[in-house]
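Question (not urgent): is this output format expected?
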Amino acid sequence: MSAIALVTGGNRGIGSAIAKSLTAAGYTVIVTYRSGPAPAEYKSVQMDVTSTESVDAGFDLIEQTWGAPEIVVCNAGVTKDTLSMRMSDEDFEDVIDANLTGAFRAARRATKGLLKLRRGRLIFIGSVVGLSGSAGQVNYSASKAGLVGMARSFARELGSRGITANVVAPGFVETDMTATLDEKRRDEIAKSVPMQRFCSAEEIADVVTFLASPQASYITGAVIPVDGGLGMGH
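Got this back:
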């Protein structure tokens, strides 16, 4: 069987595009989903990244059924946007727990298999706002900024074993979430981007697939922006 790639939150949006791209590149792709029906087009495992027990059980099932994932894409996440003065402790903690601690839970558990393989990729899906900040997204920006320090620490810990850790930082992406914005707001956002348009989920997926490939074997601890120039200088 080909190398196994795991994509957390791979049942929709950017995660689904990543799963599709990795499949096309020849990987055996497994996606995790938290709720609802299992995605029919991929091998899938139910996993809630906010629960260590759920993450451990999911990895146990994956390893017993298919083997240890060699490519691990930590994509699962949530948003709870509001201005900081209105943001409750729960709003802040829930986003950190899913986006940052959740990525840590998945990467920590994945490391067991990667160390045995003595190779592998940890790829974290960050955001341009993790470096530039964003009004109304103190919690989300903090969670995505935290991924940078975390990935670079994994890179230092695991590099001698042939394991890389990198962050892909998207800008504004065409997803179900951004599709709900009104036309005026979409135009305003597009004009703030040097490329004058939103990114497609496929463009994010292409960069993830490159980082998973042998061609990226000497790239680690990097933050790769896929944001049309929006975050330049950060």
